[in-house]
Amino acid sequence: MAEDVTVVYVDQDGNELATSTIQTGTVGEEYATEPVEIEGYVVIEIPENASGEFGEEAQTVTYVYAKVAGDITVEHVDQEGNALAESSIQSGVVGEEYQTVGKAIEGYTLVEIPANAAGEFKEDPQTVTYVYGQTAADVTVEYVDGNGDPYLIQHLNQGSSGILILHHHLKLKAMLSSKRQRTQQANSEKKLRRSRMSTRK
Fold first, then answer.
1. pLDDT (tens digit, 9 = 90+) per residue, 26-64?
2. What is the pLDDT of residues 70-93, one digit of tens each?
3. Would you list the DSSP string of 82-136?
4. Contacts of 43 (CB under 8 A, 6+ apart)
5. Secondary structure class of 146 (helix, strand, coil)
6. Element at 67 (helix H, strand E)
7. Residue 199: CB atoms within 10 Å
8. Other CB atoms closer than 10 Å to residue 192's CB: what's the count?
9. pTM for this structure?
10. Are 72 and 126 contacting, i.e. CB atoms less than 8 angstroms apart?
């Protein structure tokens, strides 16, 4: 008669999750074991000696389980919370690592990457939310000289840089206008001096 084969079912910390079973046989006789279904847990480790032969020494077959984690729901929304794409769900076991990524959504740019974009599955469900902002349309900035004639056209994305360029455009236009006024004033003064000199003669 061979020694017994004991089959145990434990979690990752070695805690027993189900009653162990014992198989008996004769030396050289084959045995086979299989995991049992345990609610809320999944098998993560199948032992190498799950099947084999009875021997003169006792054997232990250990199935390791992990607790099923809450799902990870990945959402893609705009800045007002409106869904922009279909959400996705990831499943795993407690302690297992997960990773998520944003999506390319036409007309929108990713503006907020969530702190829990990557992490570990937990017992409770988790939600990962990517936030997107609407992509701004291009604006055309026109530079003009003192006479209002354009001499440079540049396309810029609307935003702080565009506002800055517009500010420079207005400042430049004012400078050119001021320069033209000074020139006109200087020409008037020259004409006045010439007129006075002509009168004296």
1. 999 999 999 999 999 999 999 999 999 999 999 999 999
2. 999 999 999 999 999 999 999 999
3. -EEEEEEEE--BTT-EEE------TTEEEEE--TTSEEE--SS-EEEEEEEEEPP
4. 35, 63, 64, 65
5. coil
6. strand 59-67
7. 7
8. 10
9. 0.57
10. yes
Tell me the three state secondary structure of residue 72: strand
The whole-angstrom separation of Cα 159 and Cα 121 is 39
Q: Which amino acid is at 142?
A: E
Residue that has been written with the tokens 């079912």 in this structure: 9
Q: How far is it, in rounded angstroms, from Cα 45 to Cα 114?
A: 33
Instruction: Give 27's contacts (C-beta < 8 A, 6+ positions apart).
Output: 1, 2, 53, 54, 55, 56
| Amino acid, single-letter form, for residue 166 | L
State the Cα angle at 41 between 37 and 46, rounded to 5°: 70
CA distances for 90 relative to 97, 116, 128, 142, angstroms: 11, 13, 11, 51
Which ranges of the chain does DSSP label H, i.e. alpha helix?
160-200
Instruction: Say how far apart CA 52 and CA 50 lie, in whole Å.
Output: 7
